[in-house]
Amino acid sequence: MTTAKKSLYIKTYGCQMNVYDSTRMADVLIPEGYNETEDISDADVIVLNTCHIREKAAEKVYSELGRIRQIKDGRNKKGKKTLVAVAGCVAQAEGEEILQRAPVVDIVVGPQNYHRLPTLVATAQKTKQRLVDTNFQETDKFRILNKTHTKTQTTPQKRIAPSAFLTVQEGCDKFCTFCVVPYTRGVEYSRPVSDIITEAKKQVALGVREITLLGQNVNAYHGLDENGKSSSLASLLDSLSGIPNLERLRYTTSHPCDMSNDLIAAHRDNPKIMPYLHLPFQAGSDRILKAMNRKHTIALYFDLIDKIRAASPEIALSTDIIVGFPGESDADFEETLAVVEKVRFAQAYSFKYSTRPGTPAAEKTEQVPEHIKSERLQRLQKLLNQHQLAFNQSCVDRTLPVLFEKIGRNPQQYIGRSPYLQSVHVQSNDDLIGQIKRAKIVDAGPNSLQAELNMTQNSTQNHYDTVYAGNTIYN
Ligand code: 5AD
Ligand code: SF4
């Protein structure tokens, strides 16, 4: 007799690392008899994988918990008690407090303890006790999670997503004064090279063609290789690029202080590394950078941009910027705008400073009023949007290799990514998912490109090298 599968619903908030972690949580629960569901009211177990980076992100979790309590009254469609687990950075930061604020929650589990989810779930179901597991462990959670790696991200059409995330580094020792990450994700840790290669091969065997290596400080990666020697991110990328059928590599997020020469050279020398780099600078004024404890100046940032562009002239640059950090004057903010004018980012993420309890910047008395933060953000985003549109428009009439990832608004519309991470839309009667095709860009908007497939290519011409050959890269 087979027992009926139980339903698991996971909702992910925040960064790409949470997306990756959610697949790992599914990995450990599926062997325990769970099937993933998209219907929250059907779930036996609900996991909210939360984000604590800014205040709004954390608040969303509590409103979702309020909704869960209201709709469900603690039970699912089958009339069974639903178990609710809060995971992620809010869990790590608030722990026990979540149980107090949200009576619907049964389990609070921090990012270091996902390998223990099956035990936590079974114990909570059996004992009806509410559990908190937010200790930082000595054991390597990745070693335990590795054993159960079966799943990778899927597209909304429930197919294997050709582009996957792979966490190679976690935690951060930089302690920027605005940031909760060193407290929620712990100290910097790099996974061993061989574990990463094994996981990447498994992903590729499932149909993945592009891997984005993840880490809060990914370019500080220093995992051990098989000889027990520390490996840089550049040499990890080099090893990964030897995996057949793995066509594209990306990595995020990088810190300027760890942008080493070998990594810059890898962009020049390794055609599988996509010409795209996310390099946050956060603020344009050295005074503010110092108060943020960023450990770099704007001169160092410009110097890096020059070196990167010299090595890889076609590279698209992206960044993170905060406006309204405590003490930021109008003049400081003008310096941020000046950096943006000078670099002209292809893409950028910008945020109003958000006070995070427990971080040094939260203690500062010179907080910037909300309306000034809003005005600054508006001005900044206007400029960033202009540059993003100009970059997208510069691609019109070019032919770019596009990795198609999912179906769009109609069944003939396919959406993929250019090497520069732009979203590219084409119409096609053929199934393009998982293929790299040359596409001629015919129109560009602020957030996506319209393209037509190059009719001369045959369906096997999807290897990146064939597109990359010679000096006529992307044209
Ligand atoms: N307020 C606003 N933005 C923040 N970030 C991190 N912490 C804060 C905060 N307290 C931004 C930074 C970081 C990105 C992931 O989020 O720009 O690079
Ligand atoms: Fe946070 Fe990034 Fe600074 Fe680390 S380097 S503290 S993750 S902003």
Q: What does this protein structure show overall?
A:
The protein is an alpha/beta fold. The protein contains 15 helices and 19 strands. It has helices at residues 16-29, 55-72, 88-94, 96-101, 117-127, 141-146, 181-184, 193-205, 233-240, 261-269, 286-291, 298-311, 330-343, 370-393, 464-468; strands spanning 6-12, 34-36, 45-50, 83-87, 107-109, 131-133, 163-167, 169-170, 189-190, 210-214, 248-252, 276-278, 316-323, 347-352, 399-407, 413-417, 423-427, 436-444, 448-453. The strands form 5 sheets. Strands 2-1-3-4-5-6 form a 6-stranded parallel β-sheet, sandwiched between helices. A 5-stranded mixed β-barrel has the order 15-16-17-19-18. Helix 13 (330-343) links the parallel strand 13 (316-323) and strand 14 (347-352). The longest helix is centred in the last third of the chain and has 24 residues, at 370-393. Bound molecules: 5'-deoxyadenosine and iron/sulfur cluster (SF4). 5'-deoxyadenosine binds at residues 53-54, 178-179, 280, 282, 320, 322, 351, 353-354, 356.
Give a quick set of tags describing it.
15 helices, binds iron/sulfur cluster, binds 5'-deoxyadenosine, disordered C terminus, 19 strands, 475 residues, alpha/beta, six-stranded parallel sheet
Helix-strand layout with pairing:
Elements: E1 6-12, H1 16-29, E2 34-36, E3 45-50, H2 55-72, E4 83-87, H3 88-94, H4 96-101, E5 107-109, H5 117-127, E6 131-133, H6 141-146, E7 163-167, E8 169-170, H7 181-184, E9 189-190, H8 193-205, E10 210-214, H9 233-240, E11 248-252, H10 261-269, E12 276-278, H11 286-291, H12 298-311, E13 316-323, H13 330-343, E14 347-352, H14 370-393, E15 399-407, E16 413-417, E17 423-427, E18 436-444, E19 448-453, H15 464-468
Parallel strand pairs: 1-2, 1-3, 3-4, 4-5, 5-6, 7-10, 10-11, 12-13, 13-14, 17-19
Antiparallel strand pairs: 8-9, 15-16, 15-18, 16-17, 18-19
Helix pairs in contact: 9-10, 13-14
